[in-house]
Amino acid sequence: MRKRFGAVQAVDGVDLELHPGEIHALVGENGAGKSTLAAIAYGAVRADEGSVDAGGVVGLVHQHFKLIERLRVWENVLLNREPKRGWAIDVAAARERVRALASTYGLAVDPDALVETLPVGIKQRVELLRELDREPTVLLLDEPTAALAPSEIASFFTTITDLAKRGTAVLVVTHKLAEVIAYSQRVTVMRAGRVVASHLTSETNADAIAREMVGGDVPALAARAATVTAPLLEVRGLAARSATSALANATFDVRAGEIVGVAGIEGNGQTALADALAGVVPFTGELIYEGAPLRADDTPASRLARGIRVIPQDRRHEALVLDWNVRDNVALGRQRTLALARYGDAARDVIERFDVRPADPNAIVGQLSGGNQQKIVVGRTLTSVPKLVVAYQPTRGIDIGAAALVQSRLIEARNAGAGVLLISFELDEIFALADRVLVIANGAFVGSFDRAAIDRGRIGALMAGHA
Hints:
six-stranded mixed sheet; about 25% strand; globular
């Protein structure tokens, strides 16, 4: 299989076989061609050369959702397959069908919810259910667990394993090597559009796969330096509501020179917290930043001017203009202060420090892989000399090498004196980076742990609502 987009050879002579009853993992760096190959196999992208031979129904769960935001969950899941009563859609039967499907696969959703009101993780469940309803014989999953909470991932793979046992051929495009080792029977590694290795999973390991992905050793995290000072951000009795979550009576501090991790299952108030700090939703309570209040009517621009930077959870809808190029996207948020002639310099700085591929400031962002889009968002945030960084899922959907790079840049910002509030659904990421861990459940903070006292079991219990 071959496919070129302009000057970029996305897929370069790839052969791949999927077998009934087998989970096959496809891994590689961001921009390696994995998603393009899956889209070709599904029929969503036409290859320049090569052929696809697949029997039965092929289903694809996209990394970037293909949902109709203004429709309800059941309407999206059953679009063009709705049960009928005479000429009319049987709405009651449709709702029950989606409830039963969700129950079967352990993917809880409200059939009547409007998709535009759902958090990212629930939207991903809707994508999954839409394809599972079609009973595919070949199921292609592009980063299927990127927006699932840790407690949901094992249940999800139980479902996928059961599908494979019934004869479905499953391809999982992923960057999570622990999942590759735990659940797949075969793994193929791509780099720069080509297959560089293929193994039975039982005959390799995560370290070897990581080296094959990046073409060498995975970079180590930056060294931590003890630079903690006085409180930079003081939060007192904060309450806020976003479209997808609510926060009640939150009280905590973030000091300059530390990373504070927020651990919790998605939908428990994290979005409301990030939106209140960004200045995009009303709030009650007190936010004291550098000794002066942040008011509910302060604009996001005024907060940017004071050194507050936010990495949003949804890069495509909240952080990027997909039709613009890298240069102009990097300038966003600094367009009032960054001279037009320096837009290109700023873009090249992000491209170099965050290994954006292709290394072209004129590349259209919507044509880049999801991981390279994320590197642009994080790079724009961390190259602008932030004082306070609110990092919401900063490594979502990026490969192991890119994740290590982003995590190192967060540590470097912390070492330089910035305060970092890290909101992540990856507990390993929280534990690797945080100086303190706050646990959130049902819109409230229910636990706090210094780095030396981190207790994975206790934190997991608190996340699940067990005091």
